[in-house]
Write a structure and sequence with these properties.
The protein has no helices and 24 strands. By secondary structure, the protein is mainly β. The protein folds into 2 domains: 10-94, Carboxypeptidase-like, regulatory domain (Immunoglobulin-like, Sandwich), CATH 2.60.40; 114-292, Jelly Rolls (Sandwich). Strands 11, 13, 14, 15, 18, 21 and 22 form a 7-stranded antiparallel β-sheet that branches. Strands 1, 10, 19, 20 and 23 form a 5-stranded mixed β-sheet that branches. Strands 9, 12, 16, 17 and 24 form a 5-stranded antiparallel β-sheet that branches. The protein is globular, with a radius of gyration of 20 Å. The relative contact order is 0.21. The mean pLDDT is 86.
């Protein structure tokens, strides 16, 4: 069986390198913020902070000044200038996000309908992982009625080892749709949904989060945590030389789908969502969602 892997990566350069390191903390209580995303906007490169809030990444210094962007669920996204001439470690304070989700009026029904969207029976032979500027991978869904309740999701990831499959940890995000760009928009859940697993098929019940879909379109996203726990190393040749290449688990399956509107999107360090495939491509990521209405 042949397995194809799409690696969302950045190109290799030969410019001078610079290391950026520091810590992300809560501006209110100065406590460390685990697994915040830290990146440079212009260069579109970055990393995930550790569980203790520390981060470090090597950047290709092609300009003297860039813009750092720091984001994490439950906090306001922060942008601030970064001068490569400043070599000291930096402490970044980000502010808690006060999220006011629209009140949902749930009508009383005698018979609720439960539907599985983008149902799949296997992962397929193709997978998507990241080693570079992509930070999230989102699957688009459409439901028949507004204010539907998202109750469950199922995810399929690559797991080759049968006796001792590799562990992975990642976060799940749920987004509303941007009516102009048709891309993911605001979070529909202000709580952290974090999964640590060895399983190939991951089923997660979300009823306790009470995630209501205000429109008929929404997205379920995988947020990669680019930390040592998720690293997978391999060798590859660049300009005739063998170099070590690193990717990050999980590798998410993707399959053919007859519904061309079920497209996938990816988010980068510029904080821009882009379609993963051509808009007319009948391909979807192996993420299913169960909704009740």
């Amino acid at each position: 069986m042949r397995i194809a892997i799409i690696i969302l990566l950045f190109p290799f350069f030969a410019f001078g390198q610079s290391t950026i390191r520091g810590k992300v903390v809560n501006s209110k209580n100065k406590m460390a913020i685990p697994f915040a995303t830290v990146g440079l906007i212009n260069e579109n490169i970055g990393t995930t902070a550790s569980e203790e809030g520390f981060f470090q990444f090597v950047t290709i210094q092609i300009r003297n000044v860039d813009t750092l962007i720091i984001s994490c669920i439950g906090f306001k996204t922060l942008k601030l200038p970064y001068d490569f001439n400043e070599k000291a470690d930096i402490t970044i304070e980000i502010t808690e996000q006060v999220t006011v989700l629209n009140e949902v009026v749930v009508s009383n029904k005698n018979n609720w309908i439960s539907v599985i969207l983008n149902d799949f029976s296997n992962c397929g032979n193709s997978f998507i992982t990241s080693s570079g500027f992509q930070t999230q991978l989102a699957q688009h869904f459409q439901v028949k009625e507004e204010n539907s309740l998202l109750t469950d999701i199922k995810i399929c990831r690559m797991s080759i080892a049968l006796l001792d499959p590799e562990k992975t940890i990642f976060r799940v995000r749920v987004y509303d749709i941007d009516t102009l760009t048709k891309s993911p928009s605001t979070d529909l859940c202000d709580q952290i949904i974090e999964i640590k697993t060895r399983s190939k098929f991951i089923t997660l019940n979300l009823e306790k989060y009470k995630i209501h879909i205000p429109n008929k379109d929404f997205f379920v996203a995988i947020e990669w945590l680019k930390i040592p726990f998720n690293q997978s190393k391999s060798k590859m040749k660049v300009n005739g030389k063998e170099v070590e290449h690193m990717t990050f688990r999980p590798s998410i399956g993707w399959t053919d789908n007859d519904n061309s509107k079920m497209e996938a999107w990816s988010l980068d360090y510029k904080n821009i969502w882009r379609p993963m495939f051509k808009m007319n491509s009948k391909t979807s990521v192996s993420i299913s969602a169960t909704v009740t209405y």
